[in-house]
């Protein structure tokens, strides 16, 4: 029955393919026009702007002293050329503005949320030995495109003394080359995101990531050296990403990640995009540079980025209406018909072959498990439903990504419930077995500190595995602890989160109908709801047992380095005690603000805290970002419980219920020995069996221990 329904879907897919090509044919017919050939830029609000080539000044509003476009219309000069040495015609108090004539609709018609947008441009801020570097430039979203309101100096041609702090000024991403302490600048070479103010909401020293290393990048140079910039706003994640580089290839990691909901600050439907810059003077002298933008592309909403001017290598497709003659029209029709026939033949063969294979992806027992869960807990969704909810899994709805795949935010039609859809990558190690494990465990378990699983989808025809959760608006604990420019997580919230995770694990270990071992407790798997309550998620590696059943060994070690209990490398047997070790590390991460994989003075996190405990300086491990805003007693308890749970000897660790009681103060702390215990283990091997253990040493090198048992 399953195979026949799959084959029916294959036939439906062929019909859809044919219809697609028919629509394609009709669109070709629609191109038949006698209009003159020109390039058009399409904005999301329906504005159409015709740009002749080369790019002309009447396509953009240029405010003096900006000199407009040079180099045959391919360079936008925002400030005048640097005066020659000895020149008497020097006026450093200058600000240039260049904004599009046509406004762009940035707010959604229905939700009024600011749409996602992306832009790429490159620039050169040319300096000289004669003068100090100019003030810098800014990419702006402005409520108007007038020449008024932009002052020189630290105002970057964007604001002035009276508009700074005004809620109608809106957004700028600044590339600042002067250290103005009155603006809260961190240095004289930084990138910042500014909302209605010269004081940046997020900022960092200019640089770019290269092979895992953050390299400094000077924004201003005397010799020509372009800076490439990418700015992306994701409306779903409410986050702005700013990336820069000294080359055209975009680094994989952004320089600046700034969590801001622009819908709170952009108060009108349409905005003007463009650039501003300025020179100025202060007690140190005149700040004069020539600020030039060479390339610019922009995309808003669901539209791909379109090149506005500059090198064609970054240009997206630009629509060019074409003149069709009858003979050309006949050729187009003939080619389209052939394409339909070929697509029907090839598509039918490929789809049937593909669907026939994927229909057997699940074993019979796995299907039975899913069907049993479907009647009592999470429901089965269709791929079409989830694709529609997430706008075809668009990058604009993506709120997370990892080796497992991606997570997208979505809303089902006619329902107000917001979803988080986990789309498991076809290359992920999480296959059908892990998928079924997660659905069967978290799908039936109900607890206030577990991420609610709303449903699942297995589309055999596409090889898709999808899990549907309740959306957690505050993201993961990992993000709040370690992403720069995010407000420091308060101690009160940290304590509530840690106790919430402990409560969830105690429920899974002792109170549910089966014993559940999570096997991957870590900060990134702790999600936070709207009230910062902890919700433990990602049960792909979970194992469940009857309460009277012993844990079994596994073929591979699951988990994340830094959180994995040492005995797992020996016996490969995940138990509640291995979850306890991971929880202990999590407690230390929350208390210290250091990643589980981090090192302090060449010591791993657990060894670092043990070292401070041995020197009677345990509280020195507290997260410095908290300042004095935490309870000394609670911090001491958290760190001691962390060390107790991360004890090298599994049998010396407390239970999860005992750990929760100690955290809440419902039971006294167990005694913690003065020095870190040595790691001991016992094991048995059959004849001629080999066991190899790789253990991370304190000097961050690796040592191997190998054992042999012979006849």
From TrEMBL:
<keyword id="KW-0547">Nucleotide-binding</keyword>
<dbReference type="InterPro" id="IPR008271">
    <property type="entry name" value="Ser/Thr_kinase_AS"/>
</dbReference>
<dbReference type="InterPro" id="IPR019825">
    <property type="entry name" value="Lectin_legB_Mn/Ca_BS"/>
</dbReference>
<dbReference type="InterPro" id="IPR000719">
    <property type="entry name" value="Prot_kinase_dom"/>
</dbReference>
<feature type="domain" description="Protein kinase">
    <location>
        <begin position="393"/>
        <end position="669"/>
    </location>
</feature>
<keyword id="KW-0430">Lectin</keyword>
<keyword id="KW-1133">Transmembrane helix</keyword>
<keyword id="KW-0732">Signal</keyword>
<dbReference type="Pfam" id="PF00139">
    <property type="entry name" value="Lectin_legB"/>
</dbReference>
<keyword id="KW-0675">Receptor</keyword>
<dbReference type="GO" id="GO:0004674">
    <property type="term" value="F:protein serine/threonine kinase activity"/>
</dbReference>
<feature type="binding site">
    <location>
        <position position="422"/>
    </location>
    <ligand>
        <name>ATP</name>
    </ligand>
</feature>
<comment type="similarity">
    <text>In the N-terminal section; belongs to the leguminous lectin family.</text>
</comment>
<dbReference type="GO" id="GO:0005886">
    <property type="term" value="C:plasma membrane"/>
</dbReference>
<dbReference type="GO" id="GO:0030246">
    <property type="term" value="F:carbohydrate binding"/>
</dbReference>
<comment type="similarity">
    <text>In the C-terminal section; belongs to the protein kinase superfamily. Ser/Thr protein kinase family.</text>
</comment>
<dbReference type="InterPro" id="IPR011009">
    <property type="entry name" value="Kinase-like_dom_sf"/>
</dbReference>
<keyword id="KW-0812">Transmembrane</keyword>
<dbReference type="GO" id="GO:0002229">
    <property type="term" value="P:defense response to oomycetes"/>
</dbReference>
<dbReference type="InterPro" id="IPR013320">
    <property type="entry name" value="ConA-like_dom_sf"/>
</dbReference>
<dbReference type="InterPro" id="IPR050528">
    <property type="entry name" value="L-type_Lectin-RKs"/>
</dbReference>
<dbReference type="InterPro" id="IPR001220">
    <property type="entry name" value="Legume_lectin_dom"/>
</dbReference>
<keyword id="KW-0808">Transferase</keyword>
<feature type="transmembrane region" description="Helical">
    <location>
        <begin position="327"/>
        <end position="352"/>
    </location>
</feature>
<dbReference type="GO" id="GO:0005524">
    <property type="term" value="F:ATP binding"/>
</dbReference>
<keyword id="KW-0067">ATP-binding</keyword>
<protein>
    <recommendedName>
        <fullName>non-specific serine/threonine protein kinase</fullName>
        <ecNumber>2.7.11.1</ecNumber>
    </recommendedName>
</protein>
<keyword id="KW-1003">Cell membrane</keyword>
<keyword id="KW-0472">Membrane</keyword>
<dbReference type="InterPro" id="IPR017441">
    <property type="entry name" value="Protein_kinase_ATP_BS"/>
</dbReference>
<keyword id="KW-0418">Kinase</keyword>
<keyword id="KW-0723">Serine/threonine-protein kinase</keyword>
<dbReference type="Pfam" id="PF00069">
    <property type="entry name" value="Pkinase"/>
</dbReference>
<keyword id="KW-0325">Glycoprotein</keyword>
